[in-house]
Amino acid sequence: MLNNNNLEAFFGLPQEVKFCTKCVMSNQRPTSAVEFKHTKDSKKTTMNFDEHGVCDACRTAEIKDNIDWGMREEELIKLLDKHRKNDGSYDCLVPGSGGKDSAYQAHVLKYKYNMNPLTCTWPPILYTDYGLKNWKNWLDSGFDNISFYRNGKVMKLLTKLSIENLLHPFQTFILGQKNLAPKIAAQHGINLIFYGENEAEYGNPLADNTSSLRDKSYFSFEHLDEIFLAGVSIKDLIEKYDVKLSDLMAYLPPKLEDLEKSNIEVHYLGYYLKWTPQEVYYYAVENTGFKARPHRTQGTFSKYSGIDDKIDDLHFYTTFIKFGIGRATYDASQEIRNRHLTREEGVALVKRFDGEFPDRYFNDIMEYIGMDPNEFHKLCDKFRSPHLWCKDEMGVWKLRHNVAKTGLND
């Protein structure tokens, strides 16, 4: 155990830094259910480690190995039969941007299980050329789609404020993305929404695979004064930034009375079908025209995950700054759990790629939101938690501890 008890920890992170004994993830990883809410001083829920030093996600992977996937598929068929419609109307909704996961979900549901899915898209903030092409290829492989392009002026403002206040480029994007699907489903009389992998795969504790939207706190429209976007209250956005409430509705959850009129269920296809990212990728390539990036994603070793938005790479860089966890850590941990990498190989990849600065699209992003690049780097230094970071003798920021055990305090 690595002890930083005398150093301040931002974001409510554990002061003691631990690394999973099976993968390369650290206990500084926040669960996604709360990641979009955080401020510098907020209380944050992070991954749990058992008495053997194994993280939640690795324990979930062990359980996954013993699942009777034939029985799970039978459960899926019963669920689909419950919601299946024979009048030509849509019987399920698949949100996605045309990445490998959403392409796989929609195609399997339609062409293997004979469902009639409607797809919906909350578009990337800044499409990559290949991301836009993948989205079009996805739809051209056989799907109806509703793409909701939100107010561009407000999107720029909220993205900039999210970086300034939270160092989280995707905070408001995530909220809009989460809240779009139930609104579209309610409008079209669809009571079944499918996402891809169960969030437990990444160490986010969930009671089970299914839920009613009424049970999700982020779907509540009540107490509007308590809702913050980009670290700013709705009231201040209206009064100080001259944003109308109507301009923010796309980011806010459905009203409770609207949810009461529906009986929408949310399910994860990865609960019913064994979900292996590489196999999902190959399926999407073969069936929907999905293509990987023409180059390695900066900050990691892969080419096919999260490639549709130019800001995605910057988002993972900010997670490295705030939590000491970059994109290579996420990717390597997943590949280790799927037995495509050994832990030693994962450690080497993290050492090589984690924290690589994503300069390919950086200037495009700064120009888009109207931020001086130097201001961004100053913000990064402001959000570095003292228990994770310090400067070496050359004045260069380094992690105190890393999975390779070569940190300044290892």
Descriptive overview:
41% of the residues lie in helices and 8% in strands. With 410 residues, the protein is mainly α. The protein folds into two domains: 10-65 and 292-399, no CATH class; 69-272, Rossmann fold, CATH 3.40.50. Strands 1-2-3 form a three-stranded parallel sheet, sandwiched between helices. The chain has a three-stranded mixed sheet with strand order 4-8-5.
Mean pLDDT: 89
Query: How many separate helices?
Result: 17
Give the biggest sheet.
3 strands, parallel
Helix content: 40-55%
Alpha carbon gap, first and last residue: 10 Å
**Secondary structure category:** mainly alpha
Principal-axis shape equals: globular
**Order of SSEs:** HHHEHEHEHHEEEEHHHEHHHHHHHEE
Residue fraction in strands: 5-15%
Radius of gyration: 21 Å
CATH top level label of the largest domain: Alpha Beta
By CATH, the topology of the largest domain is Rossmann fold
> How many individual β-strands?
10
Runs in which pLDDT lies below 50 for 5 or more consecutive residues are: 33-40, 202-208, 212-219
Count of separate structural domains: 2
| CATH arch. level architecture of the largest domain | 3-Layer(aba) Sandwich
**Spatial order of the strands forming the largest sheet:** 1-2-3
Descriptive terms for the model:
single chain; about 400 residues; mainly alpha; Rossmann fold; 3-stranded parallel beta sheet
Task: Write a compact overview of the structure shown.
The chain is mainly alpha-helical. It is built from 17 helices and ten strands.
